[in-house]
Amino acid sequence: MQADGEFDLIARYFKRPSPGRMLGVGDDCALMPLSAGCELAVSTDMLVEGRHFLTDADPESLGHKALAVNLSDLAAMGARPLACTLALSLPVVNHAWLEAFSAGFHALARESQCPLVGGDTTRSESGVVLSITVLGEVRRTHALRRDAARVGDDVWVSGTLGAADLALRLVLGRLPPDPERLRATRPALDRPTPRLKLGRYLAGVAHAAIDVSDGLLQDFGHILKASHCGADLWLDALPAHPALADLDESLRREILLAGGDAYELCFTARPLWREQIEVLGRQLGVPVARVGTLVRGQDLRVLDGAGQVVPVAYRGFDHFSEPCGDIA
Amino acid sequence: MQADGEFDLIARYFKRPSPGRMLGVGDDCALMPLSAGCELAVSTDMLVEGRHFLTDADPESLGHKALAVNLSDLAAMGARPLACTLALSLPVVNHAWLEAFSAGFHALARESQCPLVGGDTTRSESGVVLSITVLGEVRRTHALRRDAARVGDDVWVSGTLGAADLALRLVLGRLPPDPERLRATRPALDRPTPRLKLGRYLAGVAHAAIDVSDGLLQDFGHILKASHCGADLWLDALPAHPALADLDESLRREILLAGGDAYELCFTARPLWREQIEVLGRQLGVPVARVGTLVRGQDLRVLDGAGQVVPVAYRGFDHFSEPCGDIA
């Protein structure tokens, strides 16, 4: 592998011209200014082959998704992307794979104005491991923190829930083959859309937000725990993806309430803002559904159409509790 | 592994109280302000078991080193540490290992005022993979960029060179056993000291800097390439670690010029600053050696005591060019 030096790989696949005020790939550190009145928002996620993506995953989609799931954390904080770094560990240098991966990555980086400014490539003995750190900025006091929800807030969810989880079950053969349903849901699994604009416009308006990556109940539960609130969620108000329509009811509920990989925002806001949030959703072309209310206490109740409590025993995905080798 | 949830691992080993103005582990993003007049400096490095550290590496030293090599990038930029994130992929949950690793990590984080503010834990099928991102701040226009060296600058190296590389050769059995030499050099390999204070005081004084991680010639070569300069380096002026004293001369040269893992700063500055830099080194207790001068052209020449050119054919370490399974 004579010519495939670490530095050549970075230059070839990852170095891009940096925006004006920024020093990007090729120094000890990347440098960038922050806007006046803003603070820095930072998030890191790691994706492991065979665990977060399949070995035969389409590399272009993987490049998109690896960045998208990180950008989703900025969205959930109400932050505007500034830049990202990528650490990439590869068992072999496969140029076709790198070409497609970097194309998917850079396309979303461009679209999100989140240029790659640094990183590391190294060789691993086993599968591909990706670690991405995203940097953003958010106006001081406007960040959508998990501990900022208040009793009386409305609970909202963007987009629809369940498509990615359903697609994953079909891909893994955990449901009987269903090409039509797979076609309708696979894009949600492979190329999730981080809700960056929605998050930015909600900053300063909403109280708390989180992105739904491990399942609605688990992720929303983090807000409740951090904010010392309880909540009632209305099952029938949850924005189910159309492909869930005629599933077995208990499976449908499980996917809605505990399905991972949705990358939609779950946020809370004063009822005062109800109409403005609906208008905002229409302006951005992002559906927003009001799905519950925050109450005193610490219980998270799911209510059916008749106001009856639906027993839920679902937990989201937790990498160290699940059986080895699972994909999340 | 009932209770070893991902969230429990983060809470138990990695969550620490965050400094006053900062939001740390436990939200979608960490938040932090930047000082007025500063820009953000960011760097990411990945460490792979069996490649960057041995499987039986002492976990406390590993925790120290993983952060140290990243802080060294901030030092080489002249930046003050703000915070760091850690992504950690583990084949099994070994509490003794995590305890020791996080102790080594946090001890250096505290000492360097670089708190861990975010990250990710996941399970890998194979070895441990670590990815760390460090964030720092540096006064605008003061950063020690690689492309800022000028013809006529002095070339300087901090500390001593060669100890870590010599220790690694002894550990790997590439040199005959020599317990005394190993005792003298092993700390340099296991617990390198990032030159943060030196870097910060050089910001605004020196022109360009880089940290010596892949070998002096290779790393210094990046400055020359980015700054469009050549250089003469004086072999006899290079600050060799005492343990190199009575080595075979060609091995000694190879270790001095191409030995990795030194994490000393190589920097360039106007001759005007010569005396101040020497005083600074004494004040900080960090030896600084003047080892060469920048010249027109693009050649990097190494000269012996008689002013004769020493033929060098060394290359530093490049993860994708070296034989598989090597440790760097």
From TrEMBL, chains A, B:
Residues 26-138 form the PurM-like N-terminal domain. Mg(2+) 1 binds at T44, D45, D120. Mg(2+) 3 binds at D28, D73, D211. Mg(2+) 4 binds at D28, S43, D73. It catalyses: thiamine phosphate + ATP = thiamine diphosphate + ADP. InterPro entries: PurM-like_C_sf, PurM-like_N, PurM-like_N_sf, ThiL-like. One of its GO terms (biological process) is thiamine biosynthetic process. Keywords: ATP-binding, Kinase, Magnesium, Metal-binding, Nucleotide-binding, Thiamine biosynthesis, Transferase. One of its GO terms (molecular function) is ATP binding. ATP binds at G119, D120, R146, S213. Substrate binds at H52, D261, F317. Pfam families: AIRS. Its EC number is 2.7.4.16. Catalyzes the ATP-dependent phosphorylation of thiamine-monophosphate (TMP) to form thiamine-pyrophosphate (TPP), the active form of vitamin B1. Belongs to the thiamine-monophosphate kinase family. HAMAP family: TMP_kinase. Reaction mechanism of ThiL seems to utilize a direct, inline transfer of the gamma-phosphate of ATP to TMP rather than a phosphorylated enzyme intermediate. This is Thiamine-monophosphate kinase. The gene is thiL.
